[in-house]
Amino acid sequence: EQLPFDAESFSHVCSVHTVYFWDHPDRVLNEIYRVLRPGGILLLGLHSKAKLEPQSVTQYNFTFYEPQNIVDLLAVHGFG
Q1: Cβ(2)–Cβ(30) under 8 Å?
Q2: Pairwise CA distance, residues 56 & 2, whole Å
Q3: Beta carbons of 50 and 32 less than 8 angstroms apart
Q4: Is 61 helix (H, G, I), strand (E, B) or coil?
Q5: 44 φ, ψ to 5°?
Q6: Residue 36 phi/psi, 5° resolution?
Q7: What is the pLDDT of residues 14-73, one digit of tens each?
Q8: Element (H or E) spanning 8, and its range?
Q9: Distance between the two ends of the chain, CA-based, in angstroms?
Q10: What is the pTM of this model?
């Protein structure tokens, strides 16, 4: 939720299978937006709620998302 980097430090940010564990996704996305340069690219990799819910890994306090949930969340935080 607080990245130790200056604003606009990165042209790309990649996060794969971490979004499920973010306690405060709003804070995380604000911080990612802050460290991305204008026109930068964010790549989020995740499985949908429909795919993960039946699996035993979900016992570890996952927050489930469907793709549209993530698209909406990104839009709220300024990502295009």
Answers
A1: no
A2: 30
A3: no
A4: coil
A5: -115, 125
A6: -80, 140
A7: 999 999 999 999 999 999 999 999 999 999 999 988 888 888 776 777 888 998 999 999
A8: none
A9: 21
A10: 0.88
